[in-house]
Amino acid sequence: MKTNLFEVITKLDKLKSIANNQGLKGTVQLLYRRIVSKDKTVRRKISARYLVGEGIEIGALHSPLEVPATAKVRYVDRMSVAELRKQYPELANYQLVEVDIIDDGETLGSIADCSLDFVIANHMIEHCQNPIGTIEQHLRVLKSGGILYMAVPDKRYTFDVSRPVTSLEHLIRDYTEGPQWSKLSHFEEWSRLVEKVSEEDLSTSVQHLISIDYSIHFHVWTQVEFLEMLFYCQRTLLLPFKIELSQENASEFIIILRKT
């Protein structure tokens, strides 16, 4: 039976703790780094090919995209670094990028129309309550010919593996009616299938996550379903872009859109 990448990484995490006690720590850590760092190499090569000029990266946290010398990046997040530290205590041992612009990454209300050469949104779109609306806003701030660079986790290889793929119909409704109708169900699904919360504790878990405005993965995809959403945006909504690249990359896929 074929083992997916998520299972491999999970097993390696367990092996690392065992290896600490058996003198194999260095070997296991080397194997782990080779597997999980492959995505950064591919990201960097694609970045060098497409990014130039002035742009932004949204939600970079501790893992900003490495860009070529021809690209100048400002960092956007919904909170200051101090607030992000409180929101993500699991990142206590990591250095976070300095936030240049505090804004809602879904709407980019403080960014002028047609003002940027590129927008980087790695592992960001799944956190958006209205993904189609987010792509529309990211295109809004791009100049003609500008690049939207997205790395999107493939749900089959992450902790979202048990969750159903978000349907196109659901995404269209979030876009046309607003996402409030589905917000509660997303938090319930997250608590059940990712955090494995019991039904008895479900309501308490959901209310806690909502109260702290925790940024869950609201929507999940594989590459096929994500492209289906993009084709809808092109053909039905007539959003101004062409798909320059769609490439698998370890546990994610990278999408490059060029504004037309």
UniProtKB/TrEMBL annotation:
<dbReference type="Pfam" id="PF08241">
    <property type="entry name" value="Methyltransf_11"/>
</dbReference>
<keyword id="KW-0808">Transferase</keyword>
<dbReference type="InterPro" id="IPR029063">
    <property type="entry name" value="SAM-dependent_MTases_sf"/>
</dbReference>
<dbReference type="GO" id="GO:0032259">
    <property type="term" value="P:methylation"/>
</dbReference>
<dbReference type="GO" id="GO:0008757">
    <property type="term" value="F:S-adenosylmethionine-dependent methyltransferase activity"/>
</dbReference>
<keyword id="KW-0489">Methyltransferase</keyword>
<dbReference type="InterPro" id="IPR013216">
    <property type="entry name" value="Methyltransf_11"/>
</dbReference>
<protein>
    <submittedName>
        <fullName>Class I SAM-dependent methyltransferase</fullName>
    </submittedName>
</protein>
<feature type="domain" description="Methyltransferase type 11">
    <location>
        <begin position="86"/>
        <end position="149"/>
    </location>
</feature>
